[in-house]
TrEMBL record:
Keywords: DNA-binding, Transcription, Transcription regulation. The keyword Transmembrane does not apply. Transmembrane segments: none annotated. This is LysR family transcriptional regulator. PROSITE patterns: HTH_LYSR. Gene3D superfamilies: Periplasmic binding protein-like II, Winged helix-like DNA-binding domain superfamily/Winged helix DNA-binding domain. Residues 9-66 form the HTH lysR-type domain. Belongs to the LysR transcriptional regulatory family. It holds the Pfam family HTH_1.
Amino acid sequence: MKAINWRGVDLNLLVAFSALMEHRSVTRAADKLSIGQSAMSHNLSRLRQLLGDPLFERQGHLMVPTARALDLAPTVDTILAMITNQVLQPERFVPDDYTGTFTIGLTDYAEMLFAPVLFDTLQQLAPQCHLSFCNLDRHNYLNAFNDRHVDIVIGSMVANNKELDSQYLYTEDHVCLFDSAATGLTTPVSLARYITTPHALVSPDGILCSGIDKQLADQGFQRHIALGSRNFLTIRHLLTGRNLICVVSRLMAQLDIFNDDLTQCPPPVDIADFDINLLWQRRNTEHPKLTWLRQVVKETVTKRVHALRHSSH
């Protein structure tokens, strides 16, 4: 088989061929493509050399296609249509027809708050889809995009990598959570009572201290952390009936899935708020499926946050 000179293959040559087939005139074909007549003649010369055929022969004022050109015309039209519709203009995403998988990366916090409503919403809008929740944290979220093929990530992480982009969702703050009967605490909790009450700590990395401890140390105080767990569910269940106090995010405290009667109030120390963001790979920003998914997730999360903040708890 003869080796193909790929350096000589130029998509513009196929466009020129199609214009010549349509107009049968170098001048009119050049006008259609907004190029000079000499440039169109040069394209025809390159086509003839590339394909080893005259392709068009002048008869009076017309350029008459050869048999080889007539044979090629349907194939060239198909190639140009495919490039136009499938490459240059990607197919529109239709949620009703989608049978693939949405993979959403979530921290423990985000999964507890949003997994149910994300499932409900996506099942309603894309009923044939599959949904996969991928648990991750600030240590492994970067690798999750490639290793676990995550489409988007929801959490307090930031896009500090040139390969990622992000969108702000909302800002979260903190409350103290405790069993008032077991602790004897009343609201508001004073700093003195806060320090002397044993603490439970939600610790994703297992470290039994946080920025609160440094702040207290700067003021000459120290609290006693009696328990740590990465799982908020564990901490929440332990608070009932025990002399423990825990600082948690306000929305986690607002969850209505617990059959308990815990008290919540503002902490007597300053604790920085944190932003929750939506992250994705920058190279996929314009992908129709992921553009749709990001919009749906943003709207769903926003509604969920509003509902929790206006609940009766």
